[in-house]
Design brief:
By secondary structure, this protein is an alpha/beta fold. Helix content is about 35%, strand content about 25%. The chain has helices at about 1-5, 50-55, 80-85, 100-110, 115-125, 130, 145-155, 175-185, 200-205, 225-230, 230-240; strands at about 10-20, 25-35, 40-45, 60-70, 70-75, 85-90, 160-165, 190-195, 210-215, 215-225.
């Protein structure tokens, strides 16, 4: 059993359905996140990507199907229990506390309240602006800097799985390139990553595997490189060509 957990996918969704009030949003989502590397979750707007992430985290409850993390069924677990198990979640809305300093935001993200100095130095190497604004309120940061802080909060402690929802949305090209560098560096660590992203240059640059959603269903899974090289498949699944978004 231990060997199977060590080599099998870190996360697996099987037939996941989610209702929000009277609305049936997910209609049987199934895909895997292999250990190590980056899995992209792609799809048109409204395909159900964010709902999938929130269902994994227990913020919305799956009405059918299973979510398995590191060999354990977490479908009915609470959000705090899921986070405690080793999953960090960065939502699309940049979850930072604007009235607190950057330092205070980071200390809150550390489960013990104490930050490992070597890990903090590692975070500063990826996000030097956070060191510059360490004692400033997070509310004065730019949109790109707030996104950096949001990601930094998620990685200030080691996690097995990092789930990130559109980290480059609304960011300038230079900041996007920095994010690409960050996720490439994260790939060299032991963390596995599930990443929703609309910037297809980012998706192609960092993605190893991909799951594509449409209308609350999984319509394709495979290697990101294979999708990036197949214009016809891109048009079929996404309604556009990645080549037009370099």
């Amino acid at each position: 059993m231990a060997d199977a957990q060590a080599t099998g996918p870190i996360l697996q969704l099987q037939g996941v359905q989610t209702h929000i009030g009277p609305y049936h949003i997910l209609h049987g989502v199934s895909f895997e996140v292999p250990r190590g590397g980056v899995t992209m979750l792609l799809g048109r707007n409204g395909a159900g990507k964010t709902t999938t992430l929130r269902t994994i985290m227990g913020l919305w409850r799956a009405s059918a199907g299973t979510v398995t993390f590191d060999g354990t069924d977490i479908t009915r677990h609470s959000t705090p229990a899921i986070a405690q198990a080793g999953i960090a979640y960065v939502p699309e809305n940049m979850s930072v506390f604007s009235d607190l300093t950057v330092a205070e935001n980071m200390r809150l993200a550390a489960r013990t309240g104490a930050i490992d100095e070597r890990r903090l130095d590692w975070v500063f190497r990826m996000f030097p602006a956070l060191k510059t604004f360490w004692h400033q309120r997070a509310g004065v940061l730019s949109g790109g800097q707030k996104q950096m802080l949001s990601v930094a909060r998620a990685i200030i402690e080691p996690r097995q799985l990092l789930i990130v929802d559109e980290p480059t949305k609304g960011l300038a090209p230079a900041i996007i390139q920095n994010m690409i560098h960050v996720f490439r560096e994260l790939k060299q660590t032991e963390v596995s990553i599930l990443l929703v992203e609309q910037n297809f240059h980012m998706a192609k640059s960092v993605g190893d595997t991909v799951a594509v959603m449409d209308d609350g269903r999984t319509v394709h899974t495979g290697a990101m490189a294979a999708l990036a090289e197949d214009d016809t498949l891109q048009q079929k699944l996404l309604g556009l060509s990645l080549a037009a978004h370099q």
